[in-house]
Amino acid sequence: MKNLLFHEIHQKSRLSIKEVNEALKEFDLYSAQWSILFCLKQFGPMTQKGIWQYMNVEAPTVTRTLVRMEQSGWIVRKEGSDKRERIVQLSEHAEQVVPQIEKRIAELEERMLAALTDEEQQQLIRLIKKIGMEDNKEEDVAND
Amino acid sequence: MKNLLFHEIHQKSRLSIKEVNEALKEFDLYSAQWSILFCLKQFGPMTQKGIWQYMNVEAPTVTRTLVRMEQSGWIVRKEGSDKRERIVQLSEHAEQVVPQIEKRIAELEERMLAALTDEEQQQLIRLIKKIGMEDNKEEDVAND
DNA sequence: ACCATATACTTACTTAGGTAAATAAATTCG
DNA sequence: CGAATTTATTTACCTAAGTAAGTATATGGT
Fold it and tell me: What residues does the HTH marR-type domain cover (chains A, B) (predicted)?
């Protein structure tokens, strides 16, 4: 029975990525790339480590995505004072377009969550956050 | 704010896959492969279409995974009466080992859901199922 | 019976994620 | 100071998922 839960999460994850990719098509962008743009918009220039830590993925994943985004002109990477690290920031083009994308994605999310009340959405986030391994202490659960 | 929800789903999806892969290592198996084994164990021999429809993925995804599983001896594919379709079933080896894997995965899931009561788990499934596009009618929500 | 269409699967190519190992810069310690 | 260790990023190789287009078998309409 519990299989159902992970099965369901896995499916909704794929579904949302698929829908986001569809919405991003007109901007020539992919979901993981958008996640990074969104992150940079929120926090300003940051190191690659900052990005993969926030996104909770491994370093190579971010490297690859950033290479593609640099090639397509969404981001710029420059050397930090610590020469090991590279500081990532939005390109001018990205700065201009990100608000439009944000709007488009917000509409999509609203459509996909239309069947849930605001209360249910909050409940859902609260419960999902509880999933995990032992390191799921109060601090993680408390920050809502 | 709503970004948080998809962000969270995406992360838990990755996390659960990562943990499942870790648990499956000793069986030389990957999460998507296990999903198919589980499916075949539940329903018995079925066509590839049956598998990708149940799993809610595209046909090529299943083709690829089955090719690997056939090579490593987990499944067998034979021609159906309709010569276009291929009927997939567990190998003898798989029949023997699947129960052990099932047990291992069940333990893992229990650990990952330890912070949620049974009631919360049911609630969580109910809410997740509500996520989707327009085709989210009563039938989908009612079947719990 | 034949041609057009539909269906089941496969192939080729793309993004996205992971691990392991390599590289290069910083830091620590004797 | 110099060698050893740690840290940030990259490279190489794996699974997983998607789309688009190709192949082969069934099916339907005239």
Answer: 2-133
Burial class (CB in 10 A: 0-12, 13-18, 19+), B25: exposed
Domain B11-112 class in CATH = mainly alpha
Question: Are B48 and B78 a contacting pair, CB within 8 Å?
Answer: no
Taking the C-alpha atoms of residue A31 and residue A101, their distance in angstroms, rounded to an integer, is 11
Q: What are A79-134's pLDDT values in tens digits?
A: 999 999 999 999 999 999 999 999 999 999 999 999 999 999 999 999 999 998 76
What are the tens digits of pLDDT across the range B54-66?
999 999 999 999 9
Q: What ipTM score was computed for the predicted complex, to two decimals?
A: 0.88
Pairing assessment for the beta strands A46-47 and A86-90 based on DSSP bridges: antiparallel
Please name the residues between 108 and 137 in chain B that touch chain A, using a CB distance below 8 Å: 109-113, 115-116, 120-121, 123-125, 127-134, 136
At B53 the three-state DSSP class reads: helix
A94-124 exposure pattern, b = at least 16 Cβ within 10 A, e = fewer: beebbeebeebbeebbeebbebbeeeebebb
Cβ count near B45 (within 10 Å):
15
Third-level CATH fold of A28-130: Arc Repressor Mutant, subunit A (1.10.10)
Report domain extents, chain B: 11-112
Estimate in Å the CA A75 to C1' D12 gap, whole number: 25
A141–chain B Cβ distance below 8 A for any pair: yes
